[in-house]
Fold:
Amino acid sequence: MTRQASPSSPLPFPSLLAKNTRLRAEGSRETGRATKRAIVNFLAERAGSAYCAACISAQLFNGKDIDVPMRHLEGAGLNRRHQRCSSCQRVKLVASLPAPN
Ligand SMILES: [Zn+2]
Structure:
């Protein structure tokens, strides 16, 4: 089947809107899980060091807001406290995992 764009075809927004809606719905679940896993992996590789959300996000997610996944991880046992960030060297609310020894 061939689809031809006719000059009188409706505006393309309905499909755009549908796509955005789907992305938003997925964003809260699946990518949220992937985000948390990426954060835990990042901190596990650097156990004993503490990083602020801004530095973690800059390295993993192009600066996207990770406040929600960070709070979920804190509830799951991630350490969060005001301390010097190992990356930007500023005293901020940082996250860390305990060193394995
Ligand atoms: Zn930092």
